[in-house]
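does this look right to u?? adenosine-5-diphosphoribose version
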Amino acid sequence: LIVIVIALALGLSLSHRNEGFKATFIARCEGFHGKSKGYDCQKIWSAFEQAYVGQDPCKVPVEAYDPLIAAAPFEPACNRMMFWSKTQDFVHDFTEKKDCFVTLEDTLLGFTLDGLTWCGKEGSSETFTTGCPGWSQCEKNPVRSFWIRASDGFAASACGDVTAMLNGSIDTPFSPTSIFGSIEVKRFNSTTVKTLTVVLVTQESPTTNCTNASLKDLQKELDQGIKYTCKDVPESKINECSSRPDVPCGACW
Ligand code: APR
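got this back:
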């Protein structure tokens, strides 16, 4: 009897935890205050789930999320799109305080899945949140494939003047193997993207500036016709700007 009770409790808590993931997904999706309202979050959940449920968690290709992107397409936010690499906390702190740029994590899908881990299992119809492969453990894991697909879609929707916040405190602010370097920069299309401004966020005593060799590699990857500019901006200047509501975003760098 004890064994049965333990098994039941375990089963219940397990199914509870998996339901918890879906509940988080739906709650975040419904709580998202994007421009256009009326998303069908149940439908978006179904499109999401079909990408990895019942699959080997190391065999989820990027394309598995195509139906999800089709169900919740990225709306172009011309002149407001913000990309980043190795500046995650800083950039999101900035976009949270100043409402003039949109990162992937400020879109419905990015907002809903930010910070979450999920995977399926062969022969199961459930979503698991533990025991999933890590980011680099196997290439085609559900989380990594999602972020690649979402980044690709987000960058494909880019238009006008685009901004990227890179880290001026490291030796190679532009890494060709990062998502920004391997997916997003390649996706910018000169028919829609006019300029790319790199904001290189530096410390008081900068280790890197806009002459950094890795930024030459970035320019080589850019579609011909997209105008490139780079600005070294001290972190303190951006912080000051985001803490003052009267300063327009255009004056932050
Ligand atoms: N291991 C674990 N997590 C990783 C790894 C890794 N090797 N690489 C990337 N990630 C995940 C983590 O969640 C990490 O915080 O991606 C995040 C960003 O990684 P960065 O290397 O800082 O940036 P990058 O790979 O360029 O991705 C950021 O892609 O998400 C889009 O639009 C977004 O422009 C942004 C860019």
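The chain has nine helices and four strands. idk if thats expected tbh
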